[in-house]
Amino acid sequence: MSNKADTEPGHIFVYGTLRQGSNHPMARRLSAQARYVGQARANGRLYDMGWYPAAMFDESAPTRIIGDVFALPPGERLLAELDAYEHGDPNYARIPLEVSLVGTGTVLVWTYGVSKPPNSA
């Protein structure tokens, strides 16, 4: 019998305002509460949304999105705080994704992305 911990990612991939070294308050909270694992890549495209980027992940995309992976602490409090921070566009959601860690293989993560290009019909 599998439990929730076996089927849901225990890591998060961030590529914008939450990256390692960012001075954003939520990035500082993430760095303080989660363990930095390393830099990672995923195929897709970044869109400039003004003061933040939005990613559309696509395995067949010729471009890669570079970001950071953090191991989430036990419980769901930090993830709930990140969900609240990332809430906005209805096409923007938390999704599971496999990313390539630089030099060490792949890992299943949570990340936030758009389901269609911004400003599309």
From TrEMBL:
CDD domains: GGCT_like. Residues 12-116 form the Gamma-glutamylcyclotransferase AIG2-like domain. InterPro entries: AIG2-like_dom, GGCT-like, GGCT-like_sf. This is Gamma-glutamylcyclotransferase AIG2-like domain-containing protein. It comes from Methyloceanibacter stevinii.
